[in-house]
Amino acid sequence: MVGLKEELLKSIWHAFTALDLDRSGKVSKSQLKASGGRRVLSHNLCTVLNVPHDPVALEEHFRDDDEGPVSNQGYMPYLNKFILEKVQGNFDKVEFNRMCWTLCAKKNLSKSPLLISDEDAFKVWVIFNFLSEDKYPLIIVPEEIEYLLKKITEAMGAGWQQEQFDHYKIALNTSREGLSAWELIDLIGSGQFSKGMDRQTVSMAINEVFNELILDVLKQGYMLKKGHKRKNWMERWFVLKPNIISYYVSEDLKDKKGDIVLDGNCCVEALPDKDGKKCLFLIKCLDKTFEISASDKKKKQEWIQAIQTTVNLLRAGSPPPHKEARQKRKELRQKLLAEQEELERQMKELQAANENKQKELETVRKQLEAAAARAAEEEKKRLQTQVELQDRFSLELEREKMVRQKMEEQVAQKSSELEQYLQRVRELEEMYKQLQEALEDEKQARQDEETVRKLQARLLEEETAKRAELEKWHLQQQQAIQMTEAEKQELENQRMMKEQALQVAMQQLKQLELERKEALEQYEEVKKKLETAANNTKSWKDKVAHHEGLIRLIEPGSKNPHLITNWGPAAFTEAELEERQRSWKGKKATSE
User: Fold this and answer.
1) From which residue to which does any coiled coil extend (predicted)?
2) pTM assigned to the model
3) Which of 125, 142, 205, 591 suits a disulfide with 155, CB 3.0-4.6 Å?
């Protein structure tokens, strides 16, 4: 009943929308009451659908109604409740469709001349309602248009022009989803897809398609039927439908002679020729059996196959082939639409994912730019630090030059002091000129010893200064090692230069040590000579002491142990020697 209600609603929708509409697109209630359109439409529907008409319910339904007829209190709820729900199916579909057609055709049918009659246009309109989509406003999609045009072309016996329809389909798809009923009538009536065919051929083709799709006529034609009482053979016009075979006197269907009701228990069998009749077959039902004679073997086989197919569909509970095919086409379109929507959804997801990726890439790009900016800033700071370090090392080198200059000045001062000291020695030598011959060997030995001692002291001082300088350079190298790897590479050349200087200083230190060792050896030799000279001149000193009194000048007569130096015994006391040592150590510390 749901499918029947949908088919009825499509025809009623055309009749309903043909009435005058108000600004909201609805039939105004005052217009329906004034013109009697509501009452006439309801009465006609009840008449053709064999439903009892209740005018009181109609007036009661619209009482105190301020809304349009398609609102909750409008005409459509009334139609569903009081008319469509009472439809039982025992009505003439052609008469129902013709009533709806009469209400809408005059207003919507094209005024331009068509190659088809009004009756053919009516049949095309009914076929449109059958093939259109189940949504409003009603349209027929290009796939169903192609199906209908193919059926009409096959019925005309012409060839189908697929390329021509493809061009038309492309032009149609670019502008809209499908055609309305009136546009479909204009398309078929224009003869665009029936060129070369006369009006009668087109009309017969439309009628054949109408009979198949709307009247459910699966097959029709003249055959001979054997009577049940008189047993005579009479020509009848047979019409095969999904559950019945009707036979008429002629093909105008005005004088119906009977029906053969089909069900799953029926069967059809071929019979051999007999009694001068050929191409015989038998239809067996529960209560009767019908003998029929076709015009030829081909017609006989076609009828047997068509009847057997109909019985098989009844057994399976399946709808007629054209309705089943229409349902499959709709399901296929719905499936393709769902797949297309799913594909669009996936494309949107991919697009969204792509946009997210683009945003992520943009974020990464900004991060890379920020990282590059930070790296450039760090490189700038590193170069600035490098410049600062170079300036610092330059200052340190200047400071080292100043320290070296001071050391050279101290060495020059020491040399000056040494020169003064030597001058004093020469003066003392003049004072002791008389003892020159006797003490020449001893004095020479003592002078050599003092020279060696001075040389050793100077070498020690230089060695100490070099060691301090080496320790300072070593400390600088340790500090340079703790710097960053990039700074190490920059300072490597400076370190190599200092290492070379260090090697030169080490070589000089080694040379000084060798000279110190040679001085020690000379000192030992001088010491031995001094001892020998002291032994040789001991007796001579005693003699001089008695005569000249030189012992008192050289030895002041202190009770402390006598000290022997380059100037002879008792030249310095231990206190003076300690004071000299402290002075030397203080100068050494200052130089370091």
Assistant:
1) 322-543
2) 0.54
3) 205
